[in-house]
Amino acid sequence: MQLRAEPKGWLINQCMMQKTGEEASMITTVVVLVMENRSFDHMVGWMKQLNPDINGVDGTEFNLMNTSDPTSGKVFFKDRSEYVDPDPGHSIQAIYEQVYGVKYSPESSVIAPNQPATMSGFAQQAESQQKGMSATVMNGFLPDAVPVYKKLVSEFALCDRWFASVPSSTQPNRSYVHSATSHGLESNVKKKLMEGLPQKTIFDSLHESGHSFGIYYQDPPSTLFYRNLRKLKYISKFHPFDLEFKKHCKQGKLPNYTVVEQRFFDLKIAPGNDDHPSHDVSQGQKLVKEVYEALRSSPQWNKVLFIITYDEHGGFYDHVPTPIDVPNPDGINGPAPFNFKFDRLGVRVPTILVSPWIQAGTVLHGPNGPYQTSEYEHSSIPATVKKIFKLGDFLTKRDEWAGTFEHLLLTRSSPRTDCPITLPSPMKWRDTVAKEDGMLSELQAELVHLGASLNGDCRKFKDMMYPDVLVKSMTVKEGSKYMKDALKTFLDECERCRRNGMDESEVVVVVNPDKTASKKKSFLKMIRAWIVCRTN
Hints:
Helix content is 33%, strand content 9%. The chain is built from 20 helices and 12 strands. Helix 4 (92-100) packs across helix 6 (122-129) and helix 16 (442-454) runs parallel beside helix 19. It holds the Pfam family Phosphoesterase.
């Protein structure tokens, strides 16, 4: 790969490019919030009304209802998004059809990656999933409908060329955010996720170099899908968001690398705030507002970089073709039947960068290197963190290739003093209460599977407790309780291991979970579900 000769995006003054790493060290705290399942055009595409430099939408974008029939009718992209239910398709097969306009098949998948993405199949794929869903995916929010983002885009930086790392679902993409690889995970494979992904993470790199990190969770944290984070030495890095985030902000004690995790389960008393359909995006807006305002009032504010992004597009339309010619991070290809080579990116997603060192109204287009084909994607986060904190080696070939954005912090000689102290309050879109008695979403089921790994149930019940059986008849409310109880069991075991002098570099594994009455009830319920599963 050759270095890009000319920048394809935001132009940077050469004197800024020559500033030293010492000057870039004004950032001592990077805060990362990864929202769920929304595309760029869907969430912020209409922000082009505020700033024509944004590569957004103007209403002329469309998909045919049938990509093979020019007379099938056009579905134009509109500005009427509100509450979305049900969840659009975002499997690797669905995304293939959305991006290339043809249904996935083993034969077509060999050809298509070498062809330009047409972004023409969103309406067709959605309509095949459910009649009328084409209108759902071909719609976006007006700026006033997402007022928190409207204010942040006006006051800080919006990247309009940031892609999901994999054209697939949640967990493969979330894994890239902190490790620049999914270790061959091309879809949400239950067994691999329960065992824990084994790759080195940015958390490890920070720890090795003497920098701090912390994970502030509302529901039990999805970062525990990284097996390394189950090591005893890292358990103290996990903090309940509601109890400690604002307190640490106020005290100026946020770690160098701070991750905020949302409520993934949608309950009446605590609605989901991750933006995953069918959750109300107003709850996600409230979370972003809460995090921003806590950071803004912190004594650390002048040294903060706050990154808001989305794991993947969730099946919603975006008009920018997905890039190809992307390096495989670690030489690991996905298994059959897809045999994905990790050589192309997913659909474009919103990414907002917030810091008093960023000029108001900045639009960040494509990166200026390090390679001619480099793009902004989730691996850009560990790549940029590596530069900010002067860490050692890259994690994989992907973060070595990914564009970085530390130059945004070098355009000023001092931090801004005019950053808003508060953000607007969002409007509520959902008229009904949370469907806590409904069945689990795929993401929620994955978190329950994680819980079964943390609390030892996956080892306790062995062959009788297939992962699918565990969640088959479980409601959202039950799944939330199961996961919270599982995390408590795991943390209790961590404390026991610490008291017994366990090597802190070892992964904590619950081998013999307590046989409490509640667990016996859960066991009987799983047996009943297993019988139902076997008879269906």
